[in-house]
Automatic annotation (TrEMBL):
Keyword set includes Isomerase: yes
UniProt-recorded Gene Ontology molecular function terms: amino-acid racemase activity
Name of the molecule in the record: Amino acid racemase
PROSITE patterns, per database record: ASP_GLU_RACEMASE_1
Annotated EC: 5.1.1.-
Record PANTHER family: ASPARTATE-GLUTAMATE RACEMASE FAMILY, GLUTAMATE RACEMASE
Keyword check for Isomerase: yes
Keywords: Isomerase
TM stretches of this protein: none
Recorded family membership: Belongs to the aspartate/glutamate racemases family.
Higher taxonomy: Bacteria, Bacillati, Bacillota, Candidatus Fermentithermobacillia, Candidatus Fermentithermobacillales
Length: 217
């Protein structure tokens, strides 16, 4: 989980909360653990299994008093079942939240996400369940998206944005009605209005789900 992506989620939780004073905000417990191995590398058979680290981090926030968990990493949802079974509190599912938000509004969506997320088919399944076709970059184009994600992690935002804009426009040319920013690094450089179609910020949707759950509890 990238620390900047974690900060982005926290900020969006704050902005999504109907607060008029400090005391109206929800309590947020953050465990930003940079020791969690690269999720995409493991999924592609090139890295260390991140599950023990993800589970330990989930248990940490549960022990600290969290009433539910949000994971600001799309790719980490490949391990959702393992994380969910390791704790006794609910764990939000970012793909299902995104699918719920676009259900009945579009028929074809594009996805800009890590190669790990694309390979797992997590978004495809969630969207197909609500009747939406998903289009993703293929081959070298997906490699470019992954390159952009690592550029964001390295702080090279302008270079990353140029790549993501190019790939987003290619998806639009294939008839998508929205583009999902399905990696928590992507919304740091791609915002609604940057493309000819709407950009769906998965991080923002997760933040709104956090506020919904917190206020309901």
């Amino acid at each position: 989980m990238g620390p900047e992506a974690t900060c982005d989620l926290f900020l969006k939780i704050i902005k999504s909360t109907p607060a008029r004073k400090d005391q109206d905000h929800i309590r947020v417990i953050i465990d930003s653990n940079p020791e969690i191995p690269d999720r995409t590398a493991y999924i592609l058979g090139k890295g260390t299994d991140p599950r023990p680290y993800l589970i330990a981090t989930a248990k940490n926030v549960e022990k600290a008093g969290a009433s539910f968990i949000a994971i600001p990493c799309n790719t980490a949802h490949y391990f959702y079942d393992d994380i969910r079974s390791a704790v006794s509190i609910p764990v939000l599912h970012i793909m299902k939240e995104v699918a719920r938000s676009v259900k009945g509004k579009v028929k074809k969506a594009g996805l800009l996400a890590s190669t790990g997320t694309v390979k797992t088919g997590l978004y495809e399944r969630a969207l197909n369940e609500v009747g939406i076709e998903m289009i993703v970059p293929e081959g070298r184009d997906q490699d470019k998206v992954m390159e952009a994600i690592y550029l964001v992690k390295a702080g090279k935002l302008e270079e990353a944005k140029a790549i993501v804009l190019e790939q987003g426009k290619l998806l639009v040319s294939q008839g998508v009605e929205v583009v999902i920013a399905g990696c928590t690094e992507i919304p740091l450089i791609l915002r609604d209005g940057d493309l000819p179609v709407a950009v769906i910020d998965a991080t923002k949707i997760l933040a709104e789900a956090c506020v919904r759950e917190a206020l309901a509890g």
